[in-house]
Amino acid sequence: MLESIDAQLSKDHFKKLSNLMYNISGVEIQAGKEGLIQSRLTKRLRALQLPNFDSYLEYLGSKKGQEELLAMMDQLTTNKTHFFREKPHFDMLRNKIMPEIKATGSHKLRIWCAGCSSGEEPYTISMVLNESLPNIASWDIRILATDISPSMLDKARQRQYFKSTLMETPPAMIQKYFKKEGRGEQAQYQVKDNVAKLIHFAQLNLMTAWPMRGPFDVIFCRNVMIYFNQATRQQLVERYYKLLRPGGYLLIGHSESLTNQGRGEFNYIQPAAYQK
Q: For residue 215, is the peptide bond before it cis, meaning its omega torsion is within 30 degrees of 0?
């Protein structure tokens, strides 16, 4: 058993790991992130009892290392989020999108959360739909929530969260849609069944083929494309466009924009919201 690890990340290591991340997931790690990579991946070396980054790269290239590729991506991407993050999108879903759909007489709704992380986003969507539709039982609703990370999807399926993730959730909705377990800072909030039953979680790498055919009424892809270069972002936007129904909506992160992404026939609606 290794007592300690003092592995140094060389320029060659950084280049190889960056290329590996990009080739697998499309995530681009910029120069200047060497310290972050060394710090985060040293934890993986310690967990695997590997002495240095040469042995880690060798391990990643082996059959045993296939699962480690996903663990590496977990370490090098940010999965921090919370319920009702970037609230204007959820206000738009409730006050604009749902009234439009109801006006058509349709009782069918399809939503995709691309890059759902630990589940706060799709569960927020489900709560908003429950608030918007008193007769929700008569609707055919499916929320597809995908992420590349198995560990994030496992956490999402467990649907247990600390109070810190509920900082922007109205107290009445916490009372209505969560079951509190435990006390004090260690208390956890369990998402109730009526919220969870609308959601299907699945692993998906956005850089690979997509098995779903659509069409979707709304696609949430928020704070995901910031990790990709411009060419990859443009490709994703074009693929999202094809999967949306006419009049469907693409919602992206408020720090993101389609301005330089060849947004095609998407129409700008409001900050970080576009319509086909």
A: yes
Domain ranges of the chain: 11-76, 88-275
Q: Which residues pair with 147 in a beta bridge?
A: 203
Superfamily of the domain at 88-275: Vaccinia Virus protein VP39 (3.40.50.150)
pLDDT in tens, 237-267: 999 999 999 999 999 999 888 866 555 689 9
Q: Which residues of 226-244 are buried (b: 16+ CB within 10 A; e: fewer)?
A: ebbeeebbbbbbeebbebb
| Intrachain domains 11-76 and 88-275 with the same fold | no
Question: pTM for this structure?
Answer: 0.85
**Token digits of residue 202:** 């699945």
Q: Which residue numbers in the chain have pLDDT < 70?
A: 1-6, 78, 259-264
Which residues, in sequence order, are CB contacts of 40 under 8 Å at separation 6+?
75, 76
Q: Is 142 a catalytic residue?
A: no
Write down the catalytic residue from 85, 147, 217, 222.
Answer: 147
Helix (H) or strand (E) holding 112: strand 108-114
Topology adopted by domain 11-76: Chemotaxis Receptor Methyltransferase Cher; domain 1 (1.10.155)
- Three-state secondary-structure class, residue 198: coil
Residue owning tokens 């039982």: 137
Reply yes or no on whether 40 is catalytic. yes
